[in-house]
Amino acid sequence: MRLRLINPNTTQAMTAAIGRTAAAVVGPGTRVEALGPSMGPASIESHYEEALAVPGVLELVRDGERDGVDAHVLACFGDPGLDAARELATGPVLGIAEAGMHAASMVGRGFGIVTTLGRTVGRSRELVQRYGFADRCVEVRACEVSVLGLDDPSSDARALIVDECHEVLASGADAVLLGCAGMTDLCRSISDEIGAPVVDGVAAATVFAESLVRLGLVTGKRGEYARPPLKEITGLLSPFALGGAPALL
Prior knowledge:
The protein is about 40% helix and about 15% strand. The protein is an alpha/beta fold. It folds into two domains: about 1-95 and about 205-240, Rossmann fold (3-Layer(aba) Sandwich); about 110-200, Rossmann fold, CATH 3.40.50.12500. The strands form two sheets. It has a four-stranded parallel beta sheet, with helices on both faces. Helix 1 (about 10-25) packs across helix 8 (about 200-215) and helix 4 packs across helix 8 (about 200-215). It is globular, with a radius of gyration of 18 Å.
């Protein structure tokens, strides 16, 4: 089995961390590929950056389909391009926010999310509503550390994340979901420190994707996730047209 982990930003250190997490949780016989796009922002902390990241994500999903990848994981908590990727892919495509929320809801009556900057809280709440967890997510908090700042020792990122995890638990949550793929290396140690389940969406999405493949489940193509219709696409995005050379998708 081949799983492709896609880091929607172009920061290679984060791609490597995502790959380490995924490789540590898959079963025997599963091959993990962690890749980042050839274009896009260094991190995703705004709607603008999320929109710019989607073409690079779709390019990697397209290539994965051609290369025989069995499932894809989009390793950014905004789940950028998830619906579009599901239109392109035959196998399962999972976003770490959706998968993480499912996992967090299985280990506690209520969970909270700790994300990066305050400006991303609204996106997290939007996804909570979309994925049907409004009655299970009791709190969304920001540690006010940027995505790239998570790897900066001077940011004191880990301590700030731990503080917000404690606040989440104080609000009545039983579990904490880390709201950024850049936090993937911190999950186990923070869980031990706060004495409560801490869910990493990267690990959860990887295991769920592997399980769906083993169950023989694919993306349904009868309705919304059917292949996009062929039509002309012009300008800078013309290579992404589905029909005619030099189509990317």
